[in-house]
Amino acid sequence: MGFIPDQGKGLPPPTIANRNSVWLAGVGWCSAVLHNAINHRPPLKSGVHRQVLLATIGWFVGYYVTKYENYTFARLDRDMNEYIRLHPQEFAAKEKKTFAEIVEPFHPVR
Question: What InterPro entries is this protein classified in (predicted)?
Answer without folding.
Answer: NDUC2 (IPR009423)
